[in-house]
Structures are given as C-alpha cells and as structure tokens.
Amino acid sequence: MSAAAFALHDLTVSYRGHPAVHHLSGEFRRGALTAIVGPNGAGKSTLLAALGGQRPDHGGRIEGPAPQRVAYLPQAAELDRSFPLTVHELAAMGLWRALGWWRGLSTDQRRRVDDALAAVGLSGFGGRLIGELSAGQLQRALFARLLLQDAEVILLDEPFNALDAGTTADLLALLPRWRSEGRTVIAVLHDLTQVHAHFDEVLVLARERVAWGPTAEVLRAESMFRARQQAEAWDAQAPWCDARSAA
Amino acid sequence: MGLAAVFDWIAPLGDYAFMRRALVATLALSLGSAPLGCLLVLRRMSLVGDAMAHAVLPGAAAGFLLAGLSLPAMSLGGFVAALLVAAAAGFVTRATPQREDASFAAFYLIALALGVLMVSSRGSSVDLMHLLFGSVLAVDEVALLQMAAVSSVTLAVLAVAYRPLVLDSVDPGFLRSVGGRGGWAHGLLLVLLVANLVSAFQAMGTLMAVGLMMLPAAAARFWAASLPGLFGVATGIGALAGVIGLLLSYHAELPSGPAIVLVCGAAYLLSVLVGPRDGVLLRRRAALRHRTG
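Above: the input entities. Below: the structure tokens describing the complete assembly.
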C-alpha cells in the first residue's frame, strides 16, 4: 500500500472553461489530516471536486483509491431540504453501497445509524424531517452520513462554514477519530486557527502549488502572502495552457 | 339526506355496465398517477405534466387521422409525440443556456397548435372535444385493460426504483459521488408520466388527465409528512374524487372528465384551507392564539 492516499501528476483542472488548478503535482499522505487553504478563486473546491471524481475531464493524472472508497461532502450540496425525508433516512444514505436498490436495513445497520447520529450529537432526532433542521443540525446529519460511508478518504469542502462554535467544535472532534481509524481527511478550510490546531499537513493553493507540507512549516506568513499575490494576479482571459496536449 | 337516499345516489355505479367500467377506470388511473404525481410535485416538475398533456395531442391526432377512432393507434401516436417533445426540450436545455421551463413551454405550444390544426383539418369539432376532454362513460374493454396495465406497470416500476428515485430527488450530487447513476431518474419519470397521461386520455381527455395526477398530489402535502403518507393520501383523494365526479357527471349530465377534475380541485382547495399541515385556517388560528396569549 502506497504512503499516498492521492498522488497528483501535473494535474490541471478547469472550472467553467478556465483552468482553475494548474500543473499541480504532489501527494496527500495516507492517514493524515490535510487542509487545503488559499484565497478565494484559488481552485480549492475545484481540486477537491476532481479528487471526488466530479471533474472527469482534467489534464494530468490522479492516482487514488477507487471512487467508492472516497466520501465527498461538497460545500453547496444539491440537497433538497423540502423533500419529506427523515434524519435517520438521510444518514442511512451513507449505507447505499451496502444496501443498493432493494435491501432493507438490518437490525445491526439500524443500530449503526443510531450510533452515527449519536456521535454527531443528534440522538433522538432520527424521526425529524430534514426540512425541520437548522443549518448546524443538517451539517451534523451530513457528517453522520459520512461516518456511515466508512470511506478510506474523506473530502470536506469548507465543512464548518456558517456554523456556530459549538457545532464546529463537535464536528472537529470527529477528525482525530477518523485519523485513529487510519482514514485520510482532506478539507478545504479558511480558518487558519483551525488548521493549526487540528491538521497535520497543509497545501497552500493559488491555482498552483504555493507550499505543501507539515502544518507548522507551511503556515508562515510568507507563503500565505505569496498565495494572495498570485490570486490577485488572476487573469480571467488567461489563455489555455497546454496541459491537455502535454498529458 | 337519509342513508337510503345515499344508496340511491350511488346505485348507478352497480346498476349499469358502463358505470362499473368507468368506476374501475378511474380507480386504476388514480392508483398509478397519484404516487407519480407526488414525485413530480416534489421534484418541481408539476408543470412538466401539463406540458406533456398538451404534447400528446398531435400524436393522438395523427393516430386518429390514420386509423380513425382506434385507441391503440391514438395512444401510440400520443406517447411518441410527447416523448419527442420532451426529448426536443431536453436537447435545447442542454445545448443552449435556455432554462427547461421555457424550452418545454415552446415545444408543447408548437405541439398543441399542430394537434388542433390536424384534428380540425379532417375531423369535426366533436372529435376535437373528444380528444381534449375524453369520455369516461364510453370506456371499453380495450381502454380498461390499457389503463390497468399502465397503472400496474407504473406501480411496479416505482416500487423497484423507489430508493434511487428518492435519492436522486433528495441529493443527486450524493448519488453521483457514491457511484450511483441517477441521470435516468428524470427520464424514467417522464416516460411514466406520458404513459399514464396516454392511458388516461380516452377516459379523461389529454387536458384533464393531468388533473387527476397533480391535484391529489398537491393536496396531499397538507395532510401527510412522509413520502408513503403522501402516496396514500393522494391515492385516496384521487379515488374518492373519481367516484364522486363520476356520480355527479351521471346525475347532473355533466362531462365526466371535467367533473372528476373539479372534484379533485375542490379537495385541493379544502386541503389548502383546513389541512392540518400548514393549512391557511389553522395557521391563522395559531397566529391569533399567539397574539392574545
């Protein structure tokens, strides 16, 4: 088993016709918590989507686990909150690969769903409709679904955005648990205090790799300053690079 | 009104063969279309049902012109025409920045005008009325079998594809991320929708058929919270409205399609007013109690 959860080779990913991530090479260490930081428009979400298999038309190469071993929680989930689904049912979606189209939940699986809801602080909420939840409770329920997906790699796109401090603390507490279970977590974040406190490695991205390595080394003012400068130099009319023809 | 009077009122349902067939027809129709309508409403596809109901017309007219009043020919024509309209609208939505509602509206209006033109070029206005509003009291064995078959297939397909359909409706991004291919759900619902409209159009007419599908589904939301609950309430409202509408049409000599749809409409309005979930009156009362308390 390789030491890398994902290895990127000269990866270029475009977003709406413009390359958002340029010629990125490097490795996400297996079993580590890696944060991706950088200014707005740096291509962080685009990179995460590519890792999650949602941007199949990229240049370069991504070496990683099979898609079914990766759990991906995008920032703006396409979740329809008005649909009459209960919290228990939403979390149980994480068992999709075990259940498929027809199999019902076994007693054991039912208990695992309850345990996952308890782990995110939603005990007793199983019967509620998802439309009745607050934003924080909904994010907790989505984390319960992640727990049940039992994935090797967990991709989180700004998972703590617009959440109150209590919810953020409760959900952050799941990260060391995932690491102790040998899972790899890759999260797009903007709160550097969180990154400092909880993450092993950091990738500073500004359409290109600015810095990538252990958190303490990377998160110095200098690299963040360079990242900001590069993002501000963003040219909306930038010509296509030849990543695709080179690949 | 005494019990005897009620029995007298509903007696025609048993007394006449055409009423028995009409009763079975409306029950079969509501069994299949109610759950389908609920899913369409939840996916914000209510108006797509309306568009498809209009899109059936040129195909049905073509069948009528080629084979006369032959149900299989008109059904097949209507089915093909509606799916062509859906495919064309879908193509324009994908190939251009135009939104789906606009492209659906454009194509169904073309189809509707084409259909009216075709019928009026050859047939009389009686034929046109027949196509538009149907006649549940003239349902024959072939039509009945067709409705029962479509209804059964609809329920079977919904049962088999229930979980991916729900997942695709709630969170299509999640379904994609776990390797489930959900893109077909939209298409499957469209095909079922058209099949149900076509099977209903002899009894209800192309324009009225969508009423029995959408009104009970829209009303159910004021009574039930869960998806199975919505299915149950919508089916119940559809079946009850079918029976009452039939009897009204028999006693008052009204066209049956509009009578059934209007009873569905009454059930919808009643639900909006007094439904226990977000009904207007209940909300008002809660607000008043809050103000004085």
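Note for the figure: Chain A has a mean pLDDT of 86.
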